[in-house]
Amino acid sequence: MKIVYNDGTVGECPQEEELHVLRHSCAHVMAQAIQRLYPEADFAYGPATEKGFYYDVDLGDKKINDEDLLAIEEEMRKIVKENLKFNAFILPRDEAVKLMQDRHEKYKEEHIGDLPEDAIISFYQQGDYIDMCVGPHILYTKALKAFKLTQSSGAYWKNDAKNKMLTRINGVAFASKEELAEYERQQEEARARDHRRIGKEMALFMTDELIGKGLPMFLPNGYTVWQELENYIKAKERKLGYQHVMTPCVGTVQLYETSGHWAHYKANMFPAMEVEGESFVLRPMNCPHHMMIYANKPHSYRDLPIRIGEIAHDFRFESSGTLKGIERGRHFCQNDAHLFVTPDQIKEEVSKVCDLIFDVYKDFNITDYRCVLSLRDPADTEKYHPDDEMWNKAEDALRQVLNDLGIEYTEEIGEAAFYGPKLDVNVKPAVGAEYTLSTCQLDFCLPAKFDLKYVDSDASEQTPVVLHRAILGSLDRFMAFIIEETKGKFPVWLAPTQVKIIPISDKVMDYCTAVYEKLEAAGVRVVLDDRSETMKYKIREAQQVDRCPYMLIIGAKEAEEGLVSLRKRDTIANEVMTLDAFTEKVCSAIANRTLEL
């Protein structure tokens, strides 16, 4: 593919850069289309992205809707058909400024002012559209064969909330229509799995602007799933010697000054509240509280390891643009724990944490994941606690443990917590980019900050090492992950409603009630659907909306002979069996937490 550089020369585009050039050029064509439709538009930035491109543009009071996107996209196709040539030219600074002033482009003019004095200021022009850009770009617009505008949103100029909110218009572009079609297929699959849509259909959780952005509320169905996850992980932890606690959702600013979070994490915390002369904050994490629990009484080396666990409510001020249902909110509940260990217990305890992580993944059939050793960036003196000796010791210790355990991992700089390195287990969901689900962090820093001690075998006082670990991560995110993996078709033990009884007629209602009472007494979450709807409607709703694992369709024959007609969630065939046999079947599936029906 031929491209034009900002000095006007033409060359062959390296294959690995072709998509980037296509997408960047598509951003220029989109800007030209916007300029034709909205002549007063003032353009800011328009880069290529990993999947496509966007342009931040000042449209005054105009709000872009889906119909507007279609109109812009259609205008882009006209520009492509016009086969306009991309011409490049360079201007001295004063002439560049005058050009932007003449075109009333105040954002570009300001951008020129931000450039170094010796910067080369180049422009690209296709037809009547001129854009300040370093390039390179395609030679002619006809090279753009497959693109689509996807959404509009808000974006602050220079990503600074103090500046004006602009309109960001996003699009995707590919080398071929086949690639675009595959992308659209993946997007359709993503929509089908989106936990926010499924959560609404299944009445799992809700959000409301009056409550606040990023503050989801779990409805009865969703809270049932949430409680099952809580009971599941707590039971596993108790078997491993964890002691569960409950701590407040707030703490004093002084607590977080002691831990270092106030210095390193303040931007992600809600503002302080002044009460009776003291400053309090909603807690973003639980380690300071657990440090104080450890410090509550003296400890001997014989007491260690001490494993303190909590399903803890935390609050972080995430920017509104990053919020996503219960996957990423401003309130969430961590499956948190802090293990207080001696230095020679680090390897064994990290090993047990890893075993627990992979045991849980096996229970949920999570197989697509990778392990990352997250390290600090030594050049970032603001994010990380400044102690090179501590960092080298902690990173070497965790690296050695992972090597000794034979865990395959990659290393990533700049991803550590501010107080220590960590093992992150990143999952690849059915759709979308990977994210961290589980983590185990090694910390020499906070125990020293809180002056934690234990009496060693030689009667000397020593500082314990702390392992911060989260197996499910947050219950909220883990639940979102499971929803999207299963499309809401939970295994029987997790399903909000495990069995629905569907009478064929009112004549069998007495028997249906007896079936209901037997299953409920056995601990099954069962619903008797006695609404005056058709049987077909009830079955379709149970299968497609409620995603109920088992339906019992009861007619006269079943009532007379003490039978049930079982229909599973993804089948249309019925299986007739005795009520006792079905009760044993469903109770076994629940008790064994089987994944298959």
What does this structure look like?
The chain is of the alpha+beta class and 597 residues long. It is built from 18 helices and 30 strands. It has an eight-stranded mixed beta sheet. A five-stranded mixed beta sheet has the order 27-26-28-29-30, sandwiched between helices. A four-stranded antiparallel beta sheet has the order 3-4-10-9. A hairpin with a 5-residue loop joins β23 and β24 (461-462). The protein is globular. It starts with a strand and ends in a 6-residue tail after the last helix.
Gist of the model:
By secondary structure, this protein is of the alpha+beta class. It is 36% helix and 26% strand.
Assembly state here? single chain
Helix content: 25-40%
Major sheet: size, sense and barrel closure?
A: 8 strands, mixed
Helix and strand content put the structural class at alpha+beta
By DSSP, the count of extended strands is 30
Order of neighbouring strands in the sheet with most strands? 13-17-18-25-22-21-19-20
Question: Can you give the mean pLDDT?
Answer: 94
- Strand residues, percent: 25-35%
Q: How would the global form be characterised? A: globular
Low-confidence stretches: none
**Cα distance spanning the termini:** 53 Å
Radius of gyration: 30 Å
Number of helices: 18
Task: Tag the structure with descriptive keywords.
597 residues; alpha+beta; eight-stranded mixed sheet; five-stranded mixed sheet; 18 helices; 30 strands
